[in-house]
Design a protein that fits this description.
Shape: elongated
Distance between the termini: 148 Å
Number of strands: 19
Number of helices: 1
Radius of gyration: 42 Å
Low-confidence stretches: 1-10, 37-54
Number of domains: 3
Order of helices and strands: HEEEEEEEEEEEEEEEEEEE
């Protein structure tokens, strides 16, 4: 009997010890799991910190080479030992001059650029800082073209050749007619140092014809070519209908450029052809400009 009682007590003590061991084991496992999570969190934080510390940015500057260099202000980083920009590329060619200073110059001729050539400068810099271009105007093209050859060809097309265009600026083609210069058309410039040929439809008349070409740069300045003078020997265009009682139209002997002006100097009709439709005009006197002449007609 006594032995059975002792066995029961021993069994209870053993079960109690086993439960205590299980509790300790669970507690240890929780601590280990917590340590693993904390270690993981710390690792992630360190990775983010490291990646943030080495993250970089880029500044892109695109322009037309005008023979001028770029000047950059380069801020110092907070630590006081390094500057914002750390690498410069010009058309993907690494700029090998010193840039680890508060200001530096990018000499563009090292990349073999030709005048009027497009380029891109990429400045790689650290995050939370930005280098500054001191002279941004050098990125934009100036008008530096020259006209070498010109002629009026087939179908009254004015052809002209340019070279040394510093940028892709629009050409404006003007004609001197009726005692004033007027734009006859616009042509997108191609840019570059090579010869470029352009064409513009004109309406030359018998005798001396004058044309000129200009571009407008980023400073809104006009750059004119020399006056192009071309003498044309052709039959003059004549009016082939009476002008004292015009009802619907005025006819010419050939295609010409014309304009109809009222007594106040307002231009009412402009165009080209061998017939002018004046049916919508009110009765009265008007000026008819054609070729390089002025005449008066009466609308019936």
């Amino acid at each position: 009997m006594v032995i059975k009682i002792i066995e029961k007590k021993l069994q209870k003590n053993l079960e109690k010890a086993i439960n205590q061991i299980k509790f300790v084991n669970k507690f240890v496992n929780k601590i280990c799991n917590s340590m693993r999570i904390n270690t993981l969190i710390i690792g992630v934080i360190l990775m983010l910190f490291v990646s943030t510390g080495i993250k970089a940015d880029e500044m892109s500057l695109k322009g037309i080479y005008q023979g001028k260099d770029l000047y950059i202000i380069n801020p110092m980083l907070d630590m006081g030992e390094e500057y914002c920009a750390y690498e410069v590329l010009v058309n993907k060619i690494e700029f090998d001059d010193a840039i680890n200073s508060s200001a530096f110059r990018i000499s563009l001729d090292f990349a073999g650029l030709q005048f009027g050539q497009e380029y891109e400068v990429v400045i790689k810099h650290h995050e939370n800082c930005t280098p500054k271009l001191v002279n941004p105007e050098v990125l934009k093209p100036l008008s530096t073209y020259s006209v070498n050859n010109y002629e009026i060809g087939y179908n009254d097309i004015l052809n002209f050749t340019t070279q040394n265009e510093s940028g892709k600026l629009t050409f404006y083609v003007e004609e001197f007619r009726w005692d004033k210069w007027s734009v006859r058309g616009t042509i997108p410039g191609e840019g570059g140092p090579e010869d470029r040929t352009y064409s513009q439809k004109v309406y030359p008349y018998n005798g001396e014809n004058m044309f000129r070409i200009y571009q407008i740069d980023h400073l809104n300045r006009k750059f004119y070519s020399d006056t192009i003078v071309i003498n044309i020997d052709k039959n003059p265009v004549l009016v082939t209908c009476p002008l004292n009682k015009v009802k619907n139209e005025i006819s010419f002997s050939a295609i010409t450029y014309y304009a109809v002006i009222n007594e106040y100097g307002e231009e009412l009709i402009r165009g080209s052809g061998d017939i002018v439709n004046v049916s919508d005009l009110k009765k009265g006197e008007y000026f008819l400009n054609f070729e390089n002449e002025y005449i008066v007609f009466k609308k019936k």
